[in-house]
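Notes from the 1:1 (GR / supervisor)

We went over the backlog. Supervisor wanted to see one worked example end to end before approving the batch request, so GR pasted a single chain during the call. The sequence is below; no edits were made to it. Supervisor asked that the structure be written out right there so they could see what the output format looks like.
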Amino acid sequence: MNRNRVIALAALMLAASCITVRPAAAQTDSAAVTKTKRIARVHLTNGADDVVEEKDFTLTVDQTTNLRFFQELHVSWSGAHPTGGIVADPNSGDAREEEYPVVLLQCAGDAPESCWTATAGERFASSYATAFPQWRLDRYASAEQRKAVVGEPNPRPDACFSAAPAERWVPFRGGNGVTYAGGPTGCAGMAPEAANVGGLSLPSNTTYGVTSGDGTGNAKFTVWTGENNASLACSASVACSLVAVPILGISCDVAAEGLPAEDRASDPDVAAEADAACKGTGHFKPGQIVVPAGHEDPSVAGELWWSASNWRNRVTVPLSFAPASNACDVVGAKRASLDLYGSELMTQATLQWLPKFCLDANSFNVKHVQTGEVAARSLLNSGGVDAVLSSDVPPEPFTKPVVNAPVALTAFAIAYAVDDAQGHSVGTLKLTPRLLAKLLTESYPAINAIKDDYAALAKNPLNVTLDPEFTALNPTIAQGVPASEAASTLLTLSSDSDVTVALTRYIDHDADARAWLDGAPDPWGMVVNPNYKGITLPVTSWPLLDTFEPTRLYESGTNDCLKNDPVPYLPLVAAPIARLNPIAQAMQFALAKPNTVCVQVAEGTSEGEKLVAQGRQTQGFRFMLGVVSLGDARRFALDTASLQTSGDAFVAPSDDSVVAAGQLLGPDPETNSWPIPYAKFATSDGKKAYPGTMVVYAQAPTEGLKNDDAGRIATFLDFAATDGQKSGTEVGELAPGYVPLTEANGLGGLSSYTHNAANAVRLQQASVPAVIPVDASAAAGGDESAHAPSNSAFDTANTALRSPPRVATPPNPVLGVAQQVGNVVKKVAGATAEAVAGLVAALFPLVTVAGVAAGLSALGVGFSGWRKRRWQT
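Structure output shown during the call:
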């Protein structure tokens, strides 16, 4: 073949492969906001200001735009008064009794009436002891607000009984325009979500934040939208704000000059008593942890957050919201649709990606049907669906040509809600594969009744906090926590999932974990539950195999449900869940899932009795572990554990550690996929790589689809490989919890392959692009670790030829290739014949042969013996 012919062939192969160089996607700050305000408590005494306290209060909120329901915000502050009388649960109604909290509220307007609270006591105050309680002496309150009874509905509902000498009603006026009067015990009506937020029995998002002795503090704040609180109704079209009220106390004015006599404490003794109460500075020491139980000083307590003195010190941060999760169901309901079945790992990514399609009037609708990947792949194989999202390939090859097009690099994570021995949230947690194996295999007895009667587990620690392996790694965590059952298990999936496969592969690749599962005791003598001894891993779903029933416990009658209907106990403790998102929600709110609580409908009878979950754990005494997606962990601000890679090396999930894992990937030419190289995590190259990393592929056939269906899949793949890899929180961007498949991250080969796969799906000629085998990449001029992850031969050729970035796929890729060859040939015209020949050899395995053959024909280039490449098995 002459030099010109070689150059033409090389250029054609390069164009057909659609290799591109793209800049790394910039990380966004998601519109983080910091605001500073001068706040003060200033009494008015004898007509002069008496400054009690004055501070510069600074508030920082980590994200304020493109928010979604139940998203967690990190809120921090400085310049606040230290908090006393601290309550364990900062989201409870009792937390309003804390002294000097920073009250965080979500509001649909700029008045206290627009702010959400869940309990009646947070927006109603009354006094029988005096007609002049603190809020009536507030110097910044209006004349109307200083009357004896304020905000009472007319007529007063019969359920509210007669008024106290002094009452202040703060009705709730939601973003939906409906007003709820509230009142004592909510007698005049509360918003329906106040009793049961979103039907989920979740805590309120109103947060009474604690400030430490140096004036700083932080808290997590859960964002609500109209999707989970229709009364508050915040959405992309209804503006809302996060309001922080740093409580400094009521600024008092007992004289009340100019007010009517009935609104003034004219009696000197009454006035002196009222003035002293109003000017109170608290009953509890800063940092003191106690249940106030009505002994707090109302002048400086969170319960009067709505008073004019406190409200004037507020800092307001506007919030904006992403399109609702069902936006595409409404907007794109009548359009042609692409349904993607499978991976829950992609939930947060598709929430941002899919509106990019449905909100474009000229595009089509895309739906993500979240289901187990095993079932999704089976449907794809049978022709029941056209495309799936999956992180694995079936053990038996598909019966049709199917591409595995990488669309995301993310991870599973082990989330934790754990408090240390001082009752504070733990900052770091370390777990080994063997500890995970112990938690999964029902090898901790959980309760003394099992430890005493179950001989196989009698010598094992009651729960993981008493396991010497765990305590050596996590010495600050209290041993023997009250939540023993939850501390005996790992909340995981009951359904088939590639996440379970990845988790159990990670465990199985660890020699210590594998030996322990096969029956060898750990160094401290703990043994595996005999029902799991020798279990074969990986598995697609975790089996619950223990069959022990603590007979003496059941016969004691302490749990009527189990007495009347005995079942094995430890599977009730494990209590797996079918979906990842509910696990994330359980971790977010510390909702313990062991189903061991007996609820009886009618006392004295077993009719209707049932076992239910334990419910929310007390702040300060929490211990829960759960398997979640990294996308969910980022959205809900979950704490995530560091997993052991080797020896004393533990790696937490982060963008950097997931990228590091991605750079260890090598393509498998047998499956045309990038399996996770668990063995490499124990090497020096893998010390910074997170072992829970997972690739997500879009899998679709390259034969048998209708042209329109194939075109929609190909368009989605092209988007996922380009604009979809730009990190951010806007519609169409890559959500937190996923790392971009870009050249800058050393992952450009994956997105390049996805472009090739898009062309193959579009053409529907039964061809599947091949990946570069490891030995071929090494032969092309580099070692496996450096070149295989990013398709080195293509990357080298692309850099050498300065191929322009791919912007869009031509409607007819074959003709598009033919039209672009001339330009590419000019760019390599100066190359030597030997260099171009080497380029051809390197590029050849990646090219869709059907496309090249057509292109060669268009150019008049003959090549004898050409065959259409069939899919690999």
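Supervisor's comment: The mean pLDDT is 86.
Batch request approved.
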